[in-house]
Protein backbone atom coordinates (compact mmCIF):
# COMPACT_ATOMS: atom_id res chain seq x y z
CA UNK A 1 0.00 0.00 0.00
CA UNK A 2 1.43 3.37 -0.98
CA UNK A 3 1.84 6.04 1.66
CA UNK A 4 -0.76 8.77 1.50
CA UNK A 5 0.78 12.17 0.80
CA UNK A 6 0.23 15.05 3.19
CA UNK A 7 -0.85 18.53 2.26
CA UNK A 8 2.16 20.81 2.18
CA UNK A 9 1.99 23.56 4.80
CA UNK A 10 3.85 26.83 4.46
CA UNK A 11 3.14 27.74 8.07
CA UNK A 12 4.10 24.44 9.68
CA UNK A 13 7.12 24.03 11.94
CA UNK A 14 10.53 23.41 10.37
CA UNK A 15 10.82 19.94 11.93
CA UNK A 16 7.56 18.64 10.42
CA UNK A 17 8.36 20.20 7.06
CA UNK A 18 11.77 18.48 7.00
CA UNK A 19 10.14 15.15 7.94
CA UNK A 20 7.35 15.66 5.36
CA UNK A 21 4.62 15.04 7.94
CA UNK A 22 1.47 16.98 8.68
CA UNK A 23 1.90 19.79 11.23
CA UNK A 24 -1.03 21.09 13.25
CA UNK A 25 0.79 24.47 13.38
CA UNK A 26 0.15 24.77 17.11
CA UNK A 27 2.47 27.28 18.76
CA UNK A 28 4.89 27.39 20.43
CA UNK A 29 5.25 23.60 19.94
CA UNK A 30 3.09 21.46 17.68
CA UNK A 31 1.54 18.26 19.06
CA UNK A 32 3.44 16.08 16.56
CA UNK A 33 6.81 17.25 17.87
CA UNK A 34 5.66 17.04 21.49
CA UNK A 35 4.51 13.44 20.99
CA UNK A 36 7.85 12.50 19.42
CA UNK A 37 9.88 14.50 21.97
CA UNK A 38 11.43 16.48 19.13
CA UNK A 39 12.59 20.07 19.03
CA UNK A 40 9.89 22.25 17.49
CA UNK A 41 10.91 25.47 15.78
CA UNK A 42 9.13 27.85 13.44
CA UNK A 43 10.65 30.07 10.80
CA UNK A 44 10.98 33.71 11.80
CA UNK A 45 8.05 35.77 10.51
CA UNK A 46 8.78 38.07 7.63
CA UNK A 47 7.18 41.45 7.04
CA UNK A 48 5.51 41.16 3.60
CA UNK A 49 7.36 43.05 0.89
CA UNK A 50 4.24 44.99 -0.12
CA UNK A 51 3.73 46.17 3.48
CA UNK A 52 7.40 47.11 3.86
CA UNK A 53 7.29 49.19 0.71
CA UNK A 54 4.05 50.90 1.69
CA UNK A 55 5.23 51.77 5.20
CA UNK A 56 8.54 53.18 3.98
CA UNK A 57 6.93 55.59 1.52
CA UNK A 58 6.62 59.23 2.48
CA UNK A 59 3.12 59.53 1.09
CA UNK A 60 0.07 57.30 1.07
CA UNK A 61 -0.67 55.18 -2.00
CA UNK A 62 -3.16 56.81 -4.40
CA UNK A 63 -6.72 56.42 -3.26
CA UNK A 64 -5.83 55.14 0.18
CA UNK A 65 -7.62 57.09 2.89
CA UNK A 66 -5.83 55.81 5.98
CA UNK A 67 -2.46 54.12 6.56
CA UNK A 68 -4.18 51.33 8.47
CA UNK A 69 -6.51 50.42 5.58
CA UNK A 70 -4.84 47.10 4.75
CA UNK A 71 -6.62 43.85 4.06
CA UNK A 72 -8.65 42.75 7.04
CA UNK A 73 -6.89 40.37 9.38
CA UNK A 74 -7.91 38.82 12.65
CA UNK A 75 -6.54 40.48 15.75
CA UNK A 76 -3.82 38.59 17.54
CA UNK A 77 -4.62 37.08 20.88
CA UNK A 78 -2.42 35.97 23.70
CA UNK A 79 -0.59 32.70 23.03
CA UNK A 80 -1.13 29.65 25.18
CA UNK A 81 1.73 27.36 26.13
CA UNK A 82 1.70 23.71 25.25
CA UNK A 83 1.75 21.48 28.36
CA UNK A 84 5.23 20.41 29.33
CA UNK A 85 7.00 22.52 26.73
CA UNK A 86 10.30 24.17 27.60
CA UNK A 87 10.51 27.73 26.35
CA UNK A 88 12.46 30.92 26.47
CA UNK A 89 10.86 33.22 29.08
CA UNK A 90 10.04 35.74 26.35
CA UNK A 91 7.75 33.15 24.73
CA UNK A 92 5.36 33.72 27.64
CA UNK A 93 4.71 37.28 26.47
CA UNK A 94 1.33 37.94 24.86
CA UNK A 95 2.71 38.76 21.37
CA UNK A 96 5.28 37.41 18.97
CA UNK A 97 8.77 38.82 19.52
CA UNK A 98 10.60 38.17 16.22
CA UNK A 99 13.81 39.66 14.85
CA UNK A 100 15.43 41.64 17.68
CA UNK A 101 12.26 42.48 19.58
CA UNK A 102 13.61 41.04 22.81
CA UNK A 103 16.77 43.13 22.58
CA UNK A 104 14.71 46.23 21.78
CA UNK A 105 12.51 45.60 24.82
CA UNK A 106 15.59 45.13 27.04
CA UNK A 107 17.09 48.34 25.68
CA UNK A 108 13.97 50.34 26.50
CA UNK A 109 13.62 48.81 29.95
CA UNK A 110 17.21 49.57 30.98
CA UNK A 111 17.03 53.18 29.79
CA UNK A 112 14.85 53.77 32.84
CA UNK A 113 17.92 53.49 35.06
CA UNK A 114 20.19 55.24 32.56
CA UNK A 115 17.93 58.30 32.41
CA UNK A 116 16.96 58.17 36.11
CA UNK A 117 13.24 57.73 35.45
CA UNK A 118 12.76 54.17 36.71
CA UNK A 119 10.42 53.86 39.72
CA UNK A 120 11.71 52.61 43.06
CA UNK A 121 9.59 49.48 42.72
CA UNK A 122 10.38 47.71 39.39
CA UNK A 123 6.94 46.12 39.23
CA UNK A 124 5.43 49.60 38.72
CA UNK A 125 7.68 50.39 35.75
CA UNK A 126 5.48 51.09 32.72
CA UNK A 127 7.68 48.83 30.59
CA UNK A 128 7.10 45.90 32.94
CA UNK A 129 3.38 46.70 33.26
CA UNK A 130 3.05 46.64 29.46
CA UNK A 131 3.85 42.92 29.36
CA UNK A 132 0.42 42.17 30.85
CA UNK A 133 -1.43 43.37 27.75
CA UNK A 134 -0.67 42.53 24.12
CA UNK A 135 -1.70 45.92 22.73
CA UNK A 136 0.22 47.87 25.38
CA UNK A 137 3.33 45.78 24.72
CA UNK A 138 3.14 46.32 20.98
CA UNK A 139 2.78 50.08 21.47
CA UNK A 140 5.69 50.01 23.92
CA UNK A 141 7.92 48.37 21.32
CA UNK A 142 7.05 51.09 18.78
CA UNK A 143 7.99 53.74 21.34
CA UNK A 144 11.17 51.81 22.08
CA UNK A 145 12.08 52.02 18.40
CA UNK A 146 11.73 55.80 18.19
CA UNK A 147 13.59 56.19 21.51
CA UNK A 148 16.49 54.16 20.12
CA UNK A 149 16.46 56.12 16.85
CA UNK A 150 16.61 59.48 18.62
CA UNK A 151 19.18 58.25 21.13
CA UNK A 152 21.62 56.69 18.65
CA UNK A 153 20.80 58.59 15.46
CA UNK A 154 19.32 55.71 13.46
CA UNK A 155 16.91 52.77 13.67
CA UNK A 156 19.00 50.38 11.60
CA UNK A 157 19.70 47.76 14.29
CA UNK A 158 16.01 47.32 15.11
CA UNK A 159 14.30 48.38 11.90
CA UNK A 160 12.94 44.91 11.11
CA UNK A 161 11.46 44.53 14.59
CA UNK A 162 9.99 48.04 14.46
CA UNK A 163 8.39 47.48 11.05
CA UNK A 164 7.02 44.10 12.10
CA UNK A 165 5.20 45.52 15.12
CA UNK A 166 4.04 48.52 13.12
CA UNK A 167 2.46 46.29 10.46
CA UNK A 168 0.87 44.11 13.14
CA UNK A 169 -0.55 47.21 14.83
CA UNK A 170 -2.08 48.37 11.55
CA UNK A 171 -3.60 44.97 10.85
CA UNK A 172 -5.07 44.72 14.32
CA UNK A 173 -6.61 48.18 13.99
CA UNK A 174 -8.25 46.93 10.78
CA UNK A 175 -9.77 44.01 12.62
CA UNK A 176 -11.13 46.37 15.27
CA UNK A 177 -12.70 48.95 12.95
CA UNK A 178 -16.45 48.76 13.19
CA UNK A 179 -16.40 46.84 16.46
CA UNK A 180 -19.04 48.02 18.89
CA UNK A 181 -17.34 47.33 22.21
CA UNK A 182 -16.11 50.32 24.22
CA UNK A 183 -12.95 48.48 25.32
CA UNK A 184 -12.09 47.68 21.71
CA UNK A 185 -12.81 51.27 20.67
CA UNK A 186 -10.51 52.74 23.33
CA UNK A 187 -7.74 50.23 22.59
CA UNK A 188 -8.03 51.15 18.92
CA UNK A 189 -7.70 54.87 19.75
CA UNK A 190 -4.55 54.26 21.79
CA UNK A 191 -3.00 52.04 19.12
CA UNK A 192 -3.51 54.60 16.35
CA UNK A 193 -2.15 57.41 18.55
CA UNK A 194 1.03 55.40 19.13
CA UNK A 195 1.45 54.90 15.39
CA UNK A 196 0.98 58.65 14.93
CA UNK A 197 3.67 59.41 17.51
CA UNK A 198 6.10 56.99 15.88
CA UNK A 199 5.55 58.51 12.43
CA UNK A 200 6.10 62.03 13.76
CA UNK A 201 9.31 61.11 15.57
CA UNK A 202 10.70 59.56 12.39
CA UNK A 203 9.97 62.71 10.38
CA UNK A 204 6.80 61.65 8.57
CA UNK A 205 4.56 64.45 9.84
CA UNK A 206 2.03 64.06 7.02
CA UNK A 207 1.35 60.44 7.96
CA UNK A 208 1.25 61.36 11.66
CA UNK A 209 -1.46 63.95 11.00
CA UNK A 210 -3.37 61.45 8.88
CA UNK A 211 -3.38 59.07 11.83
CA UNK A 212 -4.65 61.84 14.13
CA UNK A 213 -7.44 62.54 11.66
CA UNK A 214 -8.16 58.82 11.62
CA UNK A 215 -8.68 58.88 15.38
CA UNK A 216 -11.15 61.73 14.93
CA UNK A 217 -13.00 59.73 12.28
CA UNK A 218 -13.10 56.81 14.69
CA UNK A 219 -14.70 59.06 17.32
CA UNK A 220 -17.26 60.20 14.73
CA UNK A 221 -18.13 56.62 13.83
CA UNK A 222 -19.00 55.84 17.45
CA UNK A 223 -21.39 58.77 17.70
CA UNK A 224 -22.61 60.14 21.06
CA UNK A 225 -21.15 57.19 22.98
CA UNK A 226 -17.66 58.42 22.14
CA UNK A 227 -18.46 61.78 23.74
CA UNK A 228 -19.48 60.29 27.07
CA UNK A 229 -16.84 60.82 29.71
CA UNK A 230 -17.08 58.72 32.84
CA UNK A 231 -14.76 60.05 35.47
CA UNK A 232 -14.57 56.66 37.13
CA UNK A 233 -13.70 54.86 33.88
CA UNK A 234 -9.92 54.64 33.88
CA UNK A 235 -9.70 53.44 30.27
CA UNK A 236 -11.73 56.41 28.98
CA UNK A 237 -9.68 58.84 31.05
CA UNK A 238 -6.41 57.35 29.79
CA UNK A 239 -7.58 57.54 26.17
CA UNK A 240 -8.45 61.23 26.62
CA UNK A 241 -5.09 61.94 28.23
CA UNK A 242 -3.20 60.11 25.51
CA UNK A 243 -5.07 62.08 22.84
CA UNK A 244 -4.02 65.36 24.51
CA UNK A 245 -0.39 64.24 24.79
CA UNK A 246 -0.09 62.80 21.28
CA UNK A 247 -1.83 65.66 19.46
CA UNK A 248 0.16 68.34 21.29
CA UNK A 249 3.43 66.45 20.70
CA UNK A 250 2.83 65.89 16.97
CA UNK A 251 1.62 69.43 16.26
CA UNK A 252 4.50 70.96 18.24
CA UNK A 253 6.98 68.92 16.17
CA UNK A 254 5.27 70.21 13.04
CA UNK A 255 5.66 73.82 14.20
CA UNK A 256 9.25 73.34 15.24
CA UNK A 257 10.14 71.83 11.89
CA UNK A 258 8.53 74.80 10.12
CA UNK A 259 10.33 77.36 12.32
CA UNK A 260 13.67 75.59 11.98
CA UNK A 261 13.28 75.54 8.19
CA UNK A 262 12.58 79.31 8.21
CA UNK A 263 15.64 79.82 10.41
CA UNK A 264 17.82 77.95 7.90
CA UNK A 265 16.31 79.90 5.00
CA UNK A 266 17.24 83.15 6.77
CA UNK A 267 20.83 81.91 6.68
CA UNK A 268 20.70 81.19 2.95
CA UNK A 269 19.94 77.45 3.12
CA UNK A 270 17.24 76.61 0.58
CA UNK A 271 14.90 73.83 1.77
CA UNK A 272 14.64 71.77 -1.41
CA UNK A 273 13.80 68.46 0.27
CA UNK A 274 10.55 67.83 2.12
CA UNK A 275 11.00 64.08 2.60
CA UNK A 276 10.65 62.35 5.96
CA UNK A 277 14.36 61.47 5.85
CA UNK A 278 15.24 65.17 5.58
CA UNK A 279 12.81 66.02 8.39
CA UNK A 280 14.46 63.43 10.61
CA UNK A 281 17.88 64.85 9.73
CA UNK A 282 16.71 68.32 10.81
CA UNK A 283 15.39 66.88 14.07
CA UNK A 284 18.82 65.43 14.79
CA UNK A 285 20.32 68.86 14.13
CA UNK A 286 18.12 70.67 16.64
CA UNK A 287 18.71 67.86 19.15
CA UNK A 288 22.31 69.11 19.22
CA UNK A 289 21.40 72.81 19.35
CA UNK A 290 19.02 72.82 22.34
CA UNK A 291 21.07 72.37 25.55
CA UNK A 292 19.87 69.24 27.33
CA UNK A 293 16.89 69.00 25.00
CA UNK A 294 17.52 65.51 23.67
CA UNK A 295 18.00 64.01 27.13
CA UNK A 296 14.78 65.61 28.36
CA UNK A 297 12.82 64.34 25.35
CA UNK A 298 14.25 60.84 25.77
CA UNK A 299 13.18 60.85 29.42
CA UNK A 300 9.66 61.84 28.39
CA UNK A 301 9.38 59.20 25.64
CA UNK A 302 10.61 56.54 28.10
CA UNK A 303 7.60 57.40 30.27
CA UNK A 304 4.98 57.55 27.48
CA UNK A 305 3.80 53.94 28.11
CA UNK A 306 2.31 55.14 31.42
CA UNK A 307 -0.51 56.53 29.27
CA UNK A 308 -1.67 53.00 28.44
CA UNK A 309 0.07 50.97 31.21
CA UNK A 310 -0.50 52.99 34.40
CA UNK A 311 0.37 51.68 37.86
CA UNK A 312 -2.52 50.47 40.03
CA UNK A 313 -4.49 53.39 41.43
CA UNK A 314 -4.37 53.83 45.19
CA UNK A 315 -7.87 54.89 46.11
CA UNK A 316 -11.02 55.32 44.07
CA UNK A 317 -10.02 58.31 41.92
CA UNK A 318 -7.06 59.85 40.17
CA UNK A 319 -5.48 62.66 42.17
CA UNK A 320 -5.26 66.29 41.19
CA UNK A 321 -1.89 67.54 40.05
CA UNK A 322 0.06 70.64 40.99
CA UNK A 323 -0.44 73.13 38.17
CA UNK A 324 2.32 75.50 39.34
CA UNK A 325 5.28 73.85 37.50
CA UNK A 326 3.20 73.66 34.32
CA UNK A 327 2.13 77.30 34.53
CA UNK A 328 5.69 78.43 35.33
CA UNK A 329 6.84 76.74 32.14
CA UNK A 330 4.07 78.42 30.12
CA UNK A 331 5.02 81.78 31.62
CA UNK A 332 8.64 81.38 30.48
CA UNK A 333 7.51 80.36 27.01
CA UNK A 334 5.25 83.43 26.89
CA UNK A 335 8.17 85.74 27.68
CA UNK A 336 10.12 84.17 24.81
CA UNK A 337 7.12 84.63 22.49
CA UNK A 338 6.82 88.28 23.56
CA UNK A 339 10.41 88.84 22.42
CA UNK A 340 9.46 87.41 19.04
CA UNK A 341 6.53 89.83 18.76
CA UNK A 342 8.82 92.74 19.60
CA UNK A 343 11.44 91.60 17.08
CA UNK A 344 10.07 88.84 14.80
CA UNK A 345 13.35 87.57 13.35
CA UNK A 346 14.00 83.95 12.43
CA UNK A 347 16.61 83.80 15.19
CA UNK A 348 14.12 84.91 17.85
CA UNK A 349 11.47 82.49 16.57
CA UNK A 350 13.97 79.65 16.81
CA UNK A 351 14.96 80.73 20.34
CA UNK A 352 11.43 79.99 21.56
CA UNK A 353 12.31 76.34 20.97
CA UNK A 354 16.02 76.39 21.77
CA UNK A 355 15.42 77.95 25.19
CA UNK A 356 13.94 74.56 26.04
CA UNK A 357 10.53 75.63 27.34
CA UNK A 358 8.36 73.30 25.20
CA UNK A 359 10.65 70.34 25.92
CA UNK A 360 10.58 70.95 29.68
CA UNK A 361 6.80 71.33 29.52
CA UNK A 362 6.52 67.92 27.82
CA UNK A 363 8.41 66.18 30.62
CA UNK A 364 6.46 68.02 33.33
CA UNK A 365 3.14 66.99 31.77
CA UNK A 366 4.24 63.36 31.59
CA UNK A 367 5.58 63.19 35.16
CA UNK A 368 2.50 64.95 36.54
CA UNK A 369 0.33 62.37 34.77
CA UNK A 370 2.24 59.63 36.58
CA UNK A 371 1.95 61.45 39.91
CA UNK A 372 -1.84 61.45 39.61
CA UNK A 373 -1.71 57.66 39.93
CA UNK A 374 0.90 57.54 42.71
CA UNK A 375 0.32 56.53 46.30
CA UNK A 376 0.22 59.49 48.70
CA UNK A 377 3.02 57.88 50.71
CA UNK A 378 5.20 57.15 47.69
CA UNK A 379 8.61 58.85 47.81
CA UNK A 380 7.75 60.13 51.30
CA UNK A 381 10.38 59.99 54.01
CA UNK A 382 9.74 58.70 57.54
CA UNK A 383 7.77 61.16 59.64
CA UNK A 384 6.90 63.35 56.64
CA UNK A 385 3.35 64.31 55.79
CA UNK A 386 2.07 63.91 52.22
CA UNK A 387 2.78 67.01 50.17
CA UNK A 388 -0.22 68.88 48.81
CA UNK A 389 -0.36 70.58 45.40
CA UNK A 390 -0.01 74.34 45.65
CA UNK A 391 -2.62 74.82 42.93
CA UNK A 392 -4.95 71.91 42.27
CA UNK A 393 -6.13 70.93 38.79
CA UNK A 394 -7.15 67.77 37.05
CA UNK A 395 -4.43 66.58 34.67
CA UNK A 396 -6.80 66.58 31.70
CA UNK A 397 -8.08 70.08 32.44
CA UNK A 398 -4.67 71.74 32.71
CA UNK A 399 -3.31 69.79 29.72
CA UNK A 400 -6.26 70.76 27.52
CA UNK A 401 -5.85 74.45 28.35
CA UNK A 402 -2.08 74.19 27.77
CA UNK A 403 -2.67 72.88 24.25
CA UNK A 404 -5.16 75.67 23.51
CA UNK A 405 -2.75 78.27 24.93
CA UNK A 406 0.17 77.00 22.85
CA UNK A 407 -1.95 77.20 19.70
CA UNK A 408 -4.20 80.23 20.19
CA UNK A 409 -1.85 82.48 22.20
CA UNK A 410 1.75 81.41 21.57
CA UNK A 411 1.13 80.21 17.99
CA UNK A 412 3.60 77.34 18.33
CA UNK A 413 1.30 74.45 17.42
CA UNK A 414 0.35 73.20 13.95
CA UNK A 415 2.67 75.64 12.14
CA UNK A 416 0.19 78.52 12.32
CA UNK A 417 -2.68 76.54 10.79
CA UNK A 418 -6.08 76.15 12.51
CA UNK A 419 -6.57 73.06 14.62
CA UNK A 420 -8.49 70.31 12.86
CA UNK A 421 -12.08 71.08 13.88
CA UNK A 422 -12.80 67.64 15.37
CA UNK A 423 -9.60 67.72 17.41
CA UNK A 424 -10.51 71.17 18.72
CA UNK A 425 -13.96 69.82 19.59
CA UNK A 426 -12.45 66.95 21.64
CA UNK A 427 -10.02 69.24 23.46
CA UNK A 428 -12.79 71.71 24.27
CA UNK A 429 -15.05 68.92 25.57
CA UNK A 430 -12.30 67.79 27.93
CA UNK A 431 -11.78 71.36 29.15
CA UNK A 432 -15.54 71.88 29.54
CA UNK A 433 -15.78 68.86 31.82
CA UNK A 434 -12.99 70.26 34.01
CA UNK A 435 -14.56 73.74 34.18
CA UNK A 436 -17.92 72.20 35.09
CA UNK A 437 -16.43 70.10 37.87
CA UNK A 438 -14.51 73.02 39.38
CA UNK A 439 -17.34 75.56 39.14
CA UNK A 440 -17.52 75.82 42.97
CA UNK A 441 -14.14 77.62 42.73
CA UNK A 442 -16.00 80.54 41.12
CA UNK A 443 -17.66 81.26 44.45
CA UNK A 444 -14.41 81.14 46.39
CA UNK A 445 -12.40 83.98 47.87
CA UNK A 446 -12.43 87.01 45.57
CA UNK A 447 -9.19 87.21 43.62
CA UNK A 448 -7.94 83.84 44.90
CA UNK A 449 -5.72 81.67 42.73
CA UNK A 450 -8.36 78.97 42.44
CA UNK A 451 -11.07 81.41 41.36
CA UNK A 452 -8.70 83.09 38.90
CA UNK A 453 -7.50 79.73 37.53
CA UNK A 454 -11.11 78.79 36.82
CA UNK A 455 -11.58 82.05 34.90
CA UNK A 456 -8.26 81.62 33.03
CA UNK A 457 -9.39 78.22 31.76
CA UNK A 458 -12.85 79.45 30.78
CA UNK A 459 -11.49 82.53 28.99
CA UNK A 460 -8.99 80.45 26.99
CA UNK A 461 -11.78 78.11 25.93
CA UNK A 462 -13.80 81.08 24.65
CA UNK A 463 -10.71 82.57 22.98
CA UNK A 464 -9.80 79.37 21.12
CA UNK A 465 -13.36 78.90 19.85
CA UNK A 466 -13.68 82.56 18.83
CA UNK A 467 -10.44 82.41 16.84
CA UNK A 468 -11.43 79.18 15.14
CA UNK A 469 -14.89 80.41 14.12
CA UNK A 470 -13.51 83.72 12.82
CA UNK A 471 -11.46 81.90 10.19
CA UNK A 472 -13.17 81.88 6.81
CA UNK A 473 -13.03 78.11 6.55
CA UNK A 474 -16.74 77.44 6.35
CA UNK A 475 -17.02 79.25 3.00
CA UNK A 476 -14.14 77.39 1.37
CA UNK A 477 -14.53 73.90 2.83
CA UNK A 478 -18.09 73.43 4.13
CA UNK A 479 -17.73 69.63 4.13
CA UNK A 480 -15.20 69.92 6.97
CA UNK A 481 -17.64 71.67 9.33
CA UNK A 482 -20.34 69.15 10.30
CA UNK A 483 -20.07 70.16 13.99
CA UNK A 484 -20.28 73.93 13.45
CA UNK A 485 -23.42 74.10 15.61
CA UNK A 486 -21.72 72.20 18.43
CA UNK A 487 -18.72 74.55 18.35
CA UNK A 488 -21.05 77.56 18.43
CA UNK A 489 -22.90 76.09 21.43
CA UNK A 490 -19.61 75.52 23.22
CA UNK A 491 -18.53 79.10 22.52
CA UNK A 492 -21.74 80.38 24.08
CA UNK A 493 -21.26 78.06 27.06
CA UNK A 494 -17.73 79.32 27.74
CA UNK A 495 -18.97 82.88 27.19
CA UNK A 496 -21.56 82.31 29.91
CA UNK A 497 -18.76 81.16 32.23
CA UNK A 498 -16.76 84.32 31.52
CA UNK A 499 -19.80 86.50 32.16
CA UNK A 500 -20.56 84.61 35.37
CA UNK A 501 -17.06 85.39 36.63
CA UNK A 502 -17.54 89.04 35.69
CA UNK A 503 -20.82 89.16 37.64
CA UNK A 504 -19.41 87.43 40.73
CA UNK A 505 -16.25 89.56 40.89
CA UNK A 506 -17.77 92.79 39.58
CA UNK A 507 -14.99 93.04 36.99
CA UNK A 508 -15.68 94.84 33.72
CA UNK A 509 -12.44 96.68 32.98
CA UNK A 510 -10.04 94.90 30.59
CA UNK A 511 -6.95 96.00 32.50
CA UNK A 512 -8.20 94.20 35.61
CA UNK A 513 -9.11 91.15 33.53
CA UNK A 514 -5.63 91.12 32.03
CA UNK A 515 -4.02 91.25 35.47
CA UNK A 516 -6.04 88.19 36.50
CA UNK A 517 -4.97 86.29 33.38
CA UNK A 518 -1.34 87.33 33.96
CA UNK A 519 -1.45 85.61 37.36
CA UNK A 520 -0.87 82.46 35.29
CA UNK A 521 0.35 83.11 31.75
CA UNK A 522 -0.56 85.89 29.36
CA UNK A 523 1.32 87.93 26.73
CA UNK A 524 2.50 91.46 27.45
CA UNK A 525 0.01 94.25 26.74
CA UNK A 526 2.00 95.72 23.84
CA UNK A 527 2.90 92.43 22.19
CA UNK A 528 -0.07 92.11 19.84
CA UNK A 529 -0.79 94.92 17.36
CA UNK A 530 -0.37 97.66 19.96
CA UNK A 531 -3.24 96.57 22.21
CA UNK A 532 -3.89 93.95 24.79
CA UNK A 533 -4.17 90.47 23.32
CA UNK A 534 -7.65 89.10 24.01
CA UNK A 535 -9.26 92.51 24.55
CA UNK A 536 -11.56 91.95 21.58
CA UNK A 537 -12.84 88.69 23.08
CA UNK A 538 -13.57 90.47 26.34
CA UNK A 539 -15.40 93.20 24.42
CA UNK A 540 -17.58 90.56 22.75
CA UNK A 541 -18.40 89.11 26.14
CA UNK A 542 -19.38 92.53 27.50
CA UNK A 543 -21.73 93.20 24.56
CA UNK A 544 -23.92 90.28 25.56
CA UNK A 545 -23.47 90.74 29.30
CA UNK A 546 -26.68 91.11 31.21
From TrEMBL:
<keyword id="KW-0804">Transcription</keyword>
<dbReference type="GO" id="GO:0008270">
    <property type="term" value="F:zinc ion binding"/>
</dbReference>
<dbReference type="GO" id="GO:0000981">
    <property type="term" value="F:DNA-binding transcription factor activity, RNA polymerase II-specific"/>
</dbReference>
<dbReference type="GO" id="GO:0045944">
    <property type="term" value="P:positive regulation of transcription by RNA polymerase II"/>
</dbReference>
<dbReference type="GO" id="GO:0000976">
    <property type="term" value="F:transcription cis-regulatory region binding"/>
</dbReference>
<protein>
    <recommendedName>
        <fullName>Zn(2)-C6 fungal-type domain-containing protein</fullName>
    </recommendedName>
</protein>
<dbReference type="InterPro" id="IPR036864">
    <property type="entry name" value="Zn2-C6_fun-type_DNA-bd_sf"/>
</dbReference>
<keyword id="KW-0238">DNA-binding</keyword>
<dbReference type="GO" id="GO:0005634">
    <property type="term" value="C:nucleus"/>
</dbReference>
<keyword id="KW-0805">Transcription regulation</keyword>
<dbReference type="InterPro" id="IPR001138">
    <property type="entry name" value="Zn2Cys6_DnaBD"/>
</dbReference>
<keyword id="KW-0539">Nucleus</keyword>
<dbReference type="Pfam" id="PF00172">
    <property type="entry name" value="Zn_clus"/>
</dbReference>
<feature type="domain" description="Zn(2)-C6 fungal-type">
    <location>
        <begin position="12"/>
        <end position="42"/>
    </location>
</feature>
